[in-house]
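Archive transcription. Copying these from loose printouts into the bound notebook so they stop getting lost. Printout 1 of 2:
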Amino acid sequence: MKKYLIFILILVNANCFSQENNLKNSNNSDSTIRQIRKVVYKINSDTTNQTVSIESIAGESAEGGELKKFYFDNKLCKAIAIFYGETGKRVKEYYFFNGLILFLYEREEHYTEPIYDKNSEVNRVIENRFYFNSEKLIRWKNGDKIMDKILYPSKKIEIENDLKDLFKKA
């Protein structure tokens, strides 16, 4: 099992950061989603060659926020935006491949009481996953539900605008 995992990691390593975007060649969205997951896994697991910068984000939330940018060979491969609120927290993890957004994971936590209260607990979590290929939103999952494709074009524009605004503020 261990040898198999090492072999997979070597294959992913050889393919993930190549200049050729192999994701464009896939016509099957399930196959493309699997490829995206492999790239995201690779970015999250191969941290030894990554550099990280951390910046404050002002004016986006009541309690402030931060943006962490992860670079591999001087290319942005991941950005995590964390926004703190009095009664919740929002985290957006952006993943990039060949300079384009590949995947976005969003998580919102809502608390029972303000965060500074000792009795504060997370009482509701909302998760969204957005998969992109060649600058096109190909799947949007809200929790376990795949959202209707009619919503994709407007959501894609919203995500792109949020990303532009995020990098301007940081």
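Printout 2 of 2:
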Amino acid sequence: MANPVVDKLSNWQNDADSADTNAPVFSTRLGTGEAGDLGGELRRLKSELRSLSLSMTWEHWLGLKNLAATGNVAFTYVGATQFRVNDNFTASNRNVATVGRRVKACITGSTLYGTISAATFSTPNTTITVVWDSGALDNTLTEIMFGPEIKVLSHGYLPGVGTDDHHAKVHSHSGDGSGAVSHSSLSGLTTGDPHTQYLHNALITTPEAAPSQQVYLPALRR
């Protein structure tokens, strides 16, 4: 028999230490089979937490109160590469929508994976642009989940490595805007030498420094 309790994870609030708005409240009837029955609530809790355990890599913001306390977080389709959320996801104390962060989009019949390329807040919404691995967003969007926070590397994270050391020599022959580097600056190599390993093993220190097919560290698994 189906569980009679219908509230799910997206209906819950993380406010136990303040408003404490989650059911059951003192006035909730706890008769067996009713929406507030204690046994059903406990079974629902186990079920929701078990489901969450299968996707702990992803942050679920859907349904939480937004910063302005004007409503619950919801995601709205804008276009094939854009969605909107009724909250400030660029706030410095949260850093949810950061460039380079992985996202997972749930649409009818499919799941999309992509990387955030831009995020702009204009009261009361944040508009987020994503480069999808494949496919495109559509108006059946129900939820966006956010992957682990990324940290863009700088030389400060690499003790003993200087700005001009080999790892930063991402370059191209075509001058594609990724920071072309002359062969003379790759020590020990001449124009005719193979040097693809310098691109293959290079560390991207800013999103803008990445080649046309952008790569960010760390590499994240789905």
